[in-house]
Amino acid sequence: MLESLRDNQKLTLLVISLASFMSFLDISIVNVSLPTMAKYFGVTTNTILWTILIYIIVLSSFLIVFGKLAQQKGFKKVFLTGFLVFITGSALCAISTQFHELIIFRLMQAVGATMFSGIAAAMVLQYLPENKRGRNLGIVTTIGSLGLALGPLLGGFITEYINFHWIFFINVPIGIIGIILGYAVLHETDKHPGSLDIPGVVMIFIAQSTLIFALNKGLDYGWTSTIILGSLVCSVIFWALFVFQESRAPEPLIDLNFLKMREISLASAANVFSNMPFAGAVVLLPFYFEVVKGMSTSYSGMMLTLMPIAIIIVGPLAGVLSDKIAPNRVTLMGAAIGVIGCLVLSTFNPSSSLIYIAIGLLILGASVATFNPPNTKFILSESPSKYRGIASGLVNTSNMIGNGFGTGILGTAAAMVVYTTVGPSTSDKLTPALVSQGLHNAFIIGALAMGVALVLIAMTRYKKSVD
Q1: In whole angstroms, what is the distance from residue 212 CA to residue 222 CA?
Q2: Do residues 308 and 426 both lie within one domain?
Q3: Is 331 exposed, middle or buried (0-12, 13-18, 19+ CB in 10 A)?
Q4: Is 92 inside any structural domain?
Q5: Are 408 and 395 members of one domain?
Q6: Which of 26, 260, 346, 465 could form a disulfide with 443 if both were Cys (CB 3.0 to 4.6 A apart)?
Q7: What is the pLDDT of residue 322?
């Protein structure tokens, strides 16, 4: 019976979209619960961000690894294994009672998410028609955005009326559906034997982990402390070692010749900067809603859904538009909208009306929808066919690096206001004035980051699709 579903295009698109949904749901469903989790575990606002950061570090370090592994072992095998690891990690997160347990199991959960989300874009190219790439990528992004939209809503209600531990259990039944549907619908792809650059994997993980650790904990330990300076030096050393390793490895994790392609490098760098503001928004706004506006966790979750709602509405339109005109032109519009959105968010304060807040969130969400799908299509279209799996991983890696930098840098900019006023403190010491000023500082930086993304995209030139 299940064999009759094999290669059904609609169901194939559905299972790929489900992977995107799961990945985004698990990010946003946690964000709205951060203030509650900080109180439960008795940690500072900066420390609780590691619930998000550990997830981002793993994704940004291993997305390319699993893109390459999928080409070697087959897309279906890696995809389904990822679902299994993910739901196991989710169940363990749900029963965690100590903060260190939660972080360990979040790492496991992230490994699973990396396996299936890292190849989602490449699977669109692998399994679905070429003439509908923009449309299908737009749909996959939109379904992922639905996960972003439902995450805060579900997370808010579950945290307020049940217990935040249950926000992890929700992944289990969805993941089981993904495994069954993926097994039935997907055929195994051709395998391309090769080796995996394990030293490169270790080096990029250490390089990113130490950098993000320094960005996040600089206020706690002091920017000139031995541990922070040591982390920064360690990061620089391992980035240099990573580049050296990739230049000499027989089968490098990242082919530096691929990154030397001008359009690929510019668009990927733009991805990093463009994702910083949105990442900052999803971790900082719950504190603004609950501390400054006095909203309940569930109401805060409903407010956060406005950004994904904008993505859901605008995403498919941007995807279709990128099938008709050069995708980098659409991306350029997204970057310009993002600058405006960040400037609006930087003005949020205790007296801001709900309508004004909603407008700011919708603008930022629309910028993500107008930027990401067309830029993904642009990168994949500019990539030779032999690099498609790696290109898909690179897109997601640059997104996750941007998320890590956004969470670390914008979070630190906001926390700096608290540290300079009252010193390190738990979330119960936050005041509306401190949070508002922190938000202002963070999104001025966000506007600058989006401005850099705009300039980088403006430098790209669209060529015909490479196959």
Answers
A1: 15
A2: yes
A3: buried
A4: yes
A5: yes
A6: 346
A7: 79
Tokens representing 299 are 């109401």
Measured between alpha carbons, how far is 169 from 350 in angstroms, rounded to an integer? 35
Rounded to an integer, what distance in angstroms lies between the CA atom of residue 358 and that of residue 340? 14
Residue at a domain's end among 221, 236, 252: 252
The dihedral region occupied by 98, where left means phi > 0, alpha psi between -120 and 50, and beta the remainder, is beta
Looking at the structure, tell me whether residues 91 and 226 fall in a common domain.
Answer: no
The verdict on residue 464 lying in a domain is no
**Tens digits of per-residue pLDDT, 280-334?**
888 888 888 888 898 888 888 888 888 878 887 887 788 778 778 888 888 989 9
Q: What is the mean pLDDT of residues 181-202?
A: 80
- Contacts of residue 162, defined as CB under 8 A and 6 or more positions apart, other chains included, come to none
127-138 pLDDT tens trace: 877 667 677 877
Residue range of the domain that includes 342: 2-196+253-458
* Mean pLDDT value across the chain: 83
Token representation of residue 252? 């490098």
Q: Do 322 and 239 have their domain in common?
A: no
Q: Which two tokens stand for residue 218?
A: 């600089």
> Does residue 107 lie within any of the structural domains?
yes
Rounded CA-CA distance 19/228 in Å is: 36
Question: If phi over 0 gives left and psi between -120 and 50 gives alpha, with beta otherwise, what is residue 165?
Answer: alpha
Mean pLDDT of the region 237-243 = 92
Q: Which token pair is 145?
A: 């955005």
Measure the CA–CA gap between 3 and 184, rounded to whole angstroms.
Answer: 6
202 and 334: one domain?
Answer: no
* 214 and 92 inside one domain: no
